Amino acid sequence: MPETTLGDLATEVRSKNAGPFWITMELFMRDADGYRIAADETFLHEGVVADLYRVDPGSVQIFRIPSLNVVKISYPRPVSQGSLRDRDVHAGQHHVPLAQLVVPAH
Question: Alpha-carbon distance 55 to 33, whole Å?
Answer without folding.
Answer: 29
